[in-house]
Amino acid sequence: MTHGPASDVDVMALAAALERAAAAETHPATADLLRDAREALLAKQHEADTERSRYRNLFDAVPDPVSILAEDGTILDLNQAGTLAYKRPRDGIVGRNINVLNPDLPRDHLVPVWETLNRGETYVIEVTNMRGDGTRFPVEVHSANINFDGRKSIVAVARDISSRRLAEMRYRELMETIDKGIVVHNRDLEVQYCNGAAMRIFGIREDQRADQELALGRWHIVDEHGREMARHELPAQRALDTGQMIESVLLGLYHREKKQLLWLTATSVPQFAPGASTPSQVSTLFSDVTELKRDSALFDRAQSLAHIGGWEWDLGRDRMYLTDEAQRILGAARPLVTLGDMLSCLRETDRRRLRGALDLITAGGQGFDLELQGTQADGHPFWIRVIGDAEPGDPGASRITGTMQDISQDKQAEETLRIQARTDPLTGLMNRDAVLTELGARLADPERARVAVLYIDLDRFKMVNDVLGHNAGDELLVQASDRIRGAVGTEGMIARFGGDEFLVICDAGEDPHQPEAMAHAVLGAFADAFRFGKDEFAITASIGLAVAPGDGLRPQQLIQNADIAMYDSKHRARNGWQSFTQELAQRQQDRLQIETQLRRAVDNEEFRLVYQPQVDLRNGRIIAGEALIRWQNHQLGELRPDVFISHAETTGDIVRIGSWVLSEACRQVAAWRDMGLGIVRVAVNVSYRQFAGDDLADRVRAILAEFDLPGSALELEFTERVLIEDAPATLRTFADLRQLGVLLTIDDFGEGYSALNYLRRLPIHGLKLSPLFTEGVPNNRSDVAVCQAVSAIARSLGLGLVAEGVESEAQRQFLLNLGVPVGQGFLFAPGLSPDEFARRLADAPLERVQHA
Fold first, then answer.
1. What is the rounded CA–CA span in Å between residue 401 and residue 312?
2. How far apart are the C-alpha atoms of 568 and 527, rounded to whole Å?
3. Distance between CA 66 and CA 83 in Å, rounded?
4. PAS domain: which residues (predicted)?
5. Residue pair 132/113 in contact by the 8 Å Cβ criterion
6. Whole-prediction pTM value?
């Protein structure tokens, strides 16, 4: 598209040149050709002039300002409406940047415009433009792509929205000044707008959010007959559903928290977005008609629904007026007509409270809001909330009026919640928070401060959980709590403190032996086994006892000391009780110190391994060794494994320690191999935590590869606990280890679960006979019987058998006769240093004994 005088001059000059050339041409055909070209050029110029005139007429006919912008924001053209709207001459705008019309535009304001236009969309924005005289006016600008004179440009149409803004402002002012309440909801009945009148009617402060205060969950809405309305019956919802105005509906709105009732007449008007067939929101106009309904039968029915009654006391005549609902709440056998009649329904203390509040009002004081208790004529107790004040404008307070609300259900619910907050849901006993509160109250009372705490922990509870599942574990806790209740009776308070731990709080003032007697009674309650279907379990209890004030003055201190005593009882001999002593506290301190040092022992290289030979019981020749851990701490000195291993199990440090033992044992086997002593098989104990934690098979595979050892160089010993883990992961781990060639053994067989049904499923190689049983042979008949049974099990399942704790020749001979091929113990050697073990190997080469 071409515009401007320069174009016309160029065309006319070219036409004149063609005419001169035709006149000068001597050849007729060439002259005719030049004249035809001149005529065609003039015709084209006429066509362009006509098109340009049509464009300008159409451009100037648009009633809104239209501007053409270059890519950089330069104004290329402006229509006549634009020059009038901006009160500037056209040549004062065209050729300048768009900033001349809006000096407030940011530097990169065209970036989002072009991003939108390049997606083929129209860009719309509201801005404030400036006229030539400096005045401003709001416009809504619609921008689109255009090709102008072969250039990529923007056509922008700016519509003056001053009238719309003014109308919106006046509409907003009208909404805020009108005495009708107005609330606008969206389709989900969420509040979008609430005018000032509505805020006043509903008692919403400026610092509160109307959408939260008017949420449907806060209100109980009834119709004119006092019937609760469903959501689809509300006028606003009906207007949204039908698309029609719902006029003059009477509603009762009862605020659940404030206990206040409002009566409103409501008209709901649906609102449609342009082009929509369904409403997008609804406006509800309402008036407060509570005052008009106060004395009507309708209001009385609504108050009955909300359990609210009205009352008025005429002081001069001592006449009491009660609405029907108020009479029903008080439940009197006859009409109550005097203040004395009303007071007679209340407890004595609450009579005095109400009488005093009324006297205060008559003396010129403020109104009151009281919660009172009483009893109906039929004996039913009740709770009421009574609100009262003098009639406005009554200087002598001759009439006092108010409301009376039945809050019995709320009080019962509060009591239920209070009980639930203090009760363990599984056992029905007091919970941790409740017992701490009760114990704190007793310790704070000098007359009751001599109180004892029994800390009860169930022995072998985890076994029931592991074998039978959590449902059986819960049933065990319920049965155990019933037994403790039976043992304690009314002599103490019982609480479930957590997990399988219980507390008993009892008085130790009058009878100092009462706590000990109660401990014996609780232990006796666990004498009989617990039954779960066909299964029977002997579950006992370990009890710790602490007595205030000597063992603690604060609840947590007293309970902690009872816990220390319980811990000692459990580790000394289960199914017993232990009183707290300072010596136990010192042991606890020592235990914490051990656990603290244990956490850093691997990093500080404080562990070492010794190796106890496993020998052929026939000739004493070494066939393998068991790696035994020793700990030398710079603060604690040398500690025996039976002292620190249990701590490591409890804290979880056993996993890291066990990994170190595996690696160190394999390193030593490789060292002996490099010394020419052959491949010595070393047995390593594996904690259940190791087995249940990281992938044990992958760890073993990596260590064997690191030291270039065959799997047969390693024997892993597990406790019987793994037998009950019949999970696919357990079986897969055992299969993976066996595939590596590692020997698998169940350690101390017979001490724990002895789950023979699981034993036959696991791909293990052998059993180890516990020293608990070998120490009693051949003289103790029970130990002999156990050894014979374990030997028979091993033979029947084709498993190898190693006897631990062999310390006498008589034991060796008995085991040989029993068919046990391998043993270890002090009869042959204690745990040896790696060098001493190597010397013994050098003196007597390894003997290979078949290990099934």
1. 4
2. 21
3. 10
4. 51-104, 167-243
5. no
6. 0.43
Whose CA is closest to 568, among 550, 547, 582? 582
| CATH number given to 595-843 | 3.20.20.450
Q: For residues 18 and 34, is the Cβ–Cβ distance under 8 A? A: yes
Q: What is the predicted pLDDT for the residue at 752?
A: 56
Q: How far apart are CA 501 and CA 512, in angstroms?
A: 24
Tell me: the pLDDT tens digits for 2-21? 344 444 556 666 666 666 66
Structure tokens at 190: 């969420």
CATH number, span 423-580? 3.30.70.270
Q: How many CB atoms lie within 10 A of CB 120?
A: 8
SS3 category, 11:
helix
How many angstroms separate the CA atoms of 588 and 576, rounded? 19
With beta carbons less than 8 A apart as the criterion, state whether 690 and 658 touch: yes
Q: Which two tokens stand for residue 72?
A: 């950089």
Mean pLDDT of 38-52: 66
Helix 555-572, helix 432-444: angle, nearest 10: 120
Give the C-alpha separation, 245 to 267, whole Å: 7
The full length of the chain comes to 852
d(CA 346, CA 381): 10
The whole-number average pLDDT for the span 511-531 is: 89
CATH architecture for the domain at 307-413: 2-Layer Sandwich (3.30)
Contacts 24+ apart (CB under 8 A), 356-362: 357/388, 358/313, 358/388, 358/400, 361/388, 361/389, 361/390, 361/397, 361/400, 362/315, 362/397, 362/400
